[in-house]
Structure prediction request, 136 residues.
Amino acid sequence: MNRIRIHVLPSSRGRLTPVPRPQEPLSCAFTHRQCSQPRLEGQEFCIKHILEDRSAPFKQCSYVSTKNGKRCPNAAPKPEKKDGTSFCAEHARRNTLALQAQMKKSNPGPVSETLLCQLSSYAKTELGSQTAESSR
Prediction:
């Protein structure tokens, strides 16, 4: 059995045109070793290495550990005030949660005595209940 092979060039019908891929963000410019993290917008470094750039609008996080007394090594946005404290994303989140918990503790719900005073207007007195029964 002889088979004949016919080579047919594929037509462009039914083909999808290749969609240009979005440009991938440039990698961090950290020089001590290769870092594959994407750069921050308008900066040369990633969030982990942004403190290498002295002109970047970031400084070291102001959080100090109570256990060992060390400062957090992460970057935090520079505050508007010179002496203002600023925290990295993680410590800012924790600080917000702690403030919310403190607000809940300092503003407890209504005290039971206050609720009883408010409800006392609905309670019937003995004299009032007798006069209501006798008037029926």
